[in-house]
Amino acid sequence: MNWYKNIIFSSRNLKLPEGTEEQVRGIVDKIIISLQNLQNLPEDPILIGQINFINPYNKQNSLSNIYLNNKTVEETGNTVAMRDRQTGDIYLNIYKAFLLSHKNLIDINYTKKILKEHLFHELTHSIDPKIINLNKTYDMYEYDKPTEFDAYSREITNYINTAYKSEENQALLKRYMVSNSFGEPLDDIINILNMPINLFFIIKYWKENNPKYIKQLRQRIFNEVIIANS
Ligand SMILES: [Zn+2]
User: Fold this and answer.
1) Are 18 and 68 contained in the same domain?
2) How high is the pLDDT of residue 129?
3) Is a pLDDT exceeding 70 seen at residue 163?
């Protein structure tokens, strides 16, 4: 077994360094201000700021410029965040459809949460040893890629962790995670998690097509949410 398999099948998510969350929150606040002040997004990407840290896996400095990108859904294939693998820069595609499909800017807290998790997803790719050390590309369906599993697993764990902080949600979340309905978008769970619906469908996809990912995701949630909060 190759050494990197231990990372792919680790019972913990890839972990961004301390302080990253604060930087991400700062960037998200700037994005909201830009969106509120701009009537129309300009043609060229707007530089919002930078996220800078020491990559805990290769100990090298990691710098990502964060841009707001004014692209159409067709141009981006409906992808909200993209990371340029050469430069490490991250582009957030804030087109009209994104705002409409994400309850739009009226619900600022929801929009902030979504943007934060999209940034975390891309930053998880930026520290992923599978990408950096092996320059590995995978010729498989998006959700089956080990790199996407790690990034979505980080994202899903973050949502569950936030909801789990509230004591009244704990029993329901525990039941949901051990039950056969894990990954089904049930009404009460949708409300508690406040998670974009596509993440439920990704879990459902893994359940049906890639059960080893589900086993792994559950372990990570158990270790990082249930154990960590008990
Ligand atoms: Zn990704």
Assistant:
1) yes
2) 87
3) yes
Residue 165 belongs to a domain = yes
Question: Hey, what are 204's tokens?
Answer: 């459902």
**Residue whose entry in the numeric block shows the structure tokens 């158990």:** 222
* 129 assigned to some structural domain: no
Say how many Å lie between the CA of residue 121 and the centre of ligand 1: 6
Q: pTM for this one?
A: 0.84
For residue 32, the CA-to-ligand 1 centroid distance in Å is 23
User: What is the domain extent for residue 191?
Assistant: 146-227
Distance 168 CA to ligand 1 centre (A): 32
What per-residue confidence (pLDDT) applies to 103? 44
Same domain for 20 and 94, yes or no, is yes
Q: How far is the CA of 143 from the centre of ligand 1 (A)?
A: 9
Three-state DSSP class for residue 78: coil
Determine the residue type at 228.
A
Residue 37 belongs to a domain: yes
Work out how many domains the chain is built from and give that number: 2
CA distance 67 to 73: 17
Other Cβ atoms less than 10 A from the Cβ of 226: the count is: 16
Same domain for 167 and 93: no
First vs last Cα of the chain: how many Å apart? 34
Question: For the segment 87-135, what is each residue's pLDDT rounded down to a tens digit?
Answer: 888 888 765 545 544 445 667 788 888 889 999 999 999 999 888 666 6
